[in-house]
Amino acid sequence: MGIADRPGAYGVVAVATLAYTCLMFVWFSLPAYLSTIIAELDLSSTQAGVVAGAVPLTYIPIALFSGLAVDRIGPGRSLAVGVVLYGVAQVGRSFADGFPSLLALTLLLGVGATAVTFGLPKLVSTLFPPSRTGLPSSIYLVGASAGTALVFGVGRPVLGPWLGGWRPLFLWSGLVAIGYGIGWYVLARRLGIDERAAAKDADETDRDEDAAPIASIRRDLRLILTHRELQLVVVVGTMYLLASHGIQGWLPTILESRGVSPGIAGQTTSLFVGAYAVGIFAVPALADRYEARPTALIGCGAVFCAGTVGVVLADGLGPALLASIVVAGLGVGGLSPLVRAIPPALEGIGARLTGTAVGFIFAVGEIGGFLGPVLIGTSHDLTGSYVLGLGLIATAGVVVVTAGATLRRLAD
């Protein structure tokens, strides 16, 4: 069964996208039920923020090494191991009896998540040339948004009550993920995905650079860590993750604090996720068409800053709040594919080092991903309000605008 044809390649990406869909359903099942879990496990807002930010926290120490591993092992096996790992962690979370066990299992979930985050860009760079990675990247990112939307829009208000609460929902979603991971491994072996990735990597490596593995790793890390344009993408990625995890991790609880019922709060958060998905598709398509990726970064930063400020200022669940949530989602969503699609097109990176480059972005960037939920939770403990935390999230948009402008200047 071959995948050399373009429709076949898109088909493989579509199947692999389910790894991200399952991941985001599993990941954000905790924020969807955060207020319930806080009450049942007697968590403080700071503890809740730490747990909500625990998956991003995992990326900080291991993301770069996970990216290196994906580049050398291949996307097929990496995705399979990652999915099974986060599935096992989700099953374990269904039996958590307090903050320590819930945190430990969420950190384990994060380890599996890294393989998916870096395995999918590696898969796309294996199947498509650098100039054509925008659309397939959007496909798997929309799949990720679908998982998030499903857990907020269906998992929390429908499946959870039907199954009997958050623990059965965690249990069954973990088992489904494990089943999918095993199925993906079988398919990847049949298609020879890892062999195809290894062959493409060999084509991109100069024949006189057949150095020992340790020397090869050192050379690749030196290139990645000193690449000026990639460093700016890292800044953008950090602010994107700060905003994305901060807003999605706390928006349902923020809405509930304003008197919105849990079901409606979850469905309203799905509105953010839906706008996020629109941004994922629309922004990279426009950016690639007009060859204006840095300009797209600037626009997305300004848009999500304005939307977050609107969420702070809006009073009640009315048109102003809903519009602000949509605007914020569009801006944050547009950044998501750009931070993944830009590295393969950078000089010296290409498909061979895509996993390592994206790993570098997330190793640093997930500091923001961890701090987003923690800043909102801690500021609420200190002030009794979510205004300060959301204000810090909005400031991230200004940083994105500045980094995008610098990238555009370097490109010119």
Automatic annotation (TrEMBL):
MF terms (GO), sorted A to Z: transmembrane transporter activity
Lineage, top ranks: Archaea, Methanobacteriati, Methanobacteriota, Stenosarchaea group, Halobacteria
SUPFAM superfamilies linked to this entry: MFS general substrate transporter
Coiled coil: none
Protein name: Cyanate permease
UniProt superkingdom: Archaea
Keyword flag Ion transport: no
Membrane-spanning residues: 7-28, 48-70, 79-96, 102-120, 140-163, 169-187, 232-251, 263-283, 295-314, 320-339, 351-374, 386-407
Ranges for domain Major facilitator superfamily (MFS) profile: 12-412
Record's keyword terms, sorted: Membrane, Transmembrane, Transmembrane helix
